[in-house]
Amino acid sequence: MTSQTHIPVRDPDRATKRFTWNRTHTVFMVGLLAFCAITGAIAAFNLTAASVRTAVSLTAPMFPDAVMVALGVGALGLAVADLIGGCQRTGSLSMPAAGAGAMTVILLGIEIAHDVLGTDAATVLVNVTITASWFAITAFVPFLIARYGLRPLFSDPDPATRSGRLMLRLRRSPAWTGCWIALIAVYGLYVLVRTIDSYGFATGLTLMVAVPIAMTAICGIAGATDGRAWRLWIAGAALQSALTVLLTNLYVSECPVTDTCLALPNGWHFVLGIQSDVMLLYVVGPAAIWLAALGIGTLIRKRQQSA
């Protein structure tokens, strides 16, 4: 009797598969560039002249707002996108390479437009090197963590471990899990917009238009895939209410003479009264639409189960 031992043969195409391009990569780049366009528009909206900054007691930064947004928010979006891309089976190193290259080109273009890239060759070279290195780190590190750390956990969870049991529970209903992730991402994006938006116009537009549209789709999908969708609707309505109160009832200046306020540290004031018209526009209306979408999704799910 002879025994045979299977010796794994190295895939000759393994090296070429590390850098590929497919539909997943296209969706990745489209989403990343859309994120860059949104954050760039917010930064451009908040650009003000030095005289206006002085009038409203704002300190002019060392770099233009658009440069600061690209360095911070752009890197954050790139890191999150590559973290998700690294978990995908069809992902490859083309994702962080293309994303880092695109972000580097965008930021260098912004610096050239604002004349902050430098005048002599040495300064330009240093700025280009630092910019490329910064986006390469924020792109490749999250991708490699997801590729070689998170993806094995997702693809082959160990039921003997707590994390493995959690992964198995989440994989039983991937659409339900995805809806919760989408809800966190939507309201996380709102908080990000609020930190950038100095005047509140983009914040109000996001809370009144962008978030309700996204939550309508999320509630509809959740209702069509899982019977626990009402929990997601409650969470969305609660977050919408809390963020609306924080947006409309907080003042950094003196309390309006027509309202009763609670004095907070650092000059902030919180209006104790709730504005019914604002709550109707920002909370009640969107929550009613989400409930309708949830109901439609539930009807679709029940019809499919009875078929």
Structure report:
Strand 2 (261-263) and strand 3 (269-271) form a beta hairpin. This protein folds into two domains: 15-52 and 63-172, no CATH class; 174-306, no CATH class. A three-stranded antiparallel sheet has the order 1-3-2. 72% of the residues lie in helices and 3% in strands. By secondary structure, the protein is mostly helical. Helix 4 (65-87) runs antiparallel to helix 5. The model is unreliable at 1-16 and 48-62 (pLDDT under 50). The chain crosses the membrane at residues 27-50, 62-81, 93-112, 124-145, 175-193, 199-225, 232-252, 279-300. Keywords: Membrane, Transmembrane, Transmembrane helix.
H/E topology pattern: HHHHHHHHHHEEEH
| Mean pLDDT across every amino acid position | 74
Share of β-strand residues: under 5%
Instruction: Name the structural class.
Output: mainly alpha
**Overall number of strands:** 3
Helix content: over 70%
- Lateral strand order in the biggest sheet: 1-3-2
Number of domains: 2
Give the end-to-end Cα distance, rounded to a whole number of Å: 56 Å
Q: What is the 3D shape?
A: flat
Question: What are the segments in which pLDDT stays under 50 over at least 5 consecutive residues?
Answer: 1-16, 48-62
Main sheet: strands, sense, barrel: 3 strands, antiparallel
Number of helices: 11
Could you tell me the radius of gyration in angstroms?
A: 24 Å
Keywords: Membrane, Transmembrane, Transmembrane helix
Transmembrane segments: 27-50, 62-81, 93-112, 124-145, 175-193, 199-225, 232-252, 279-300
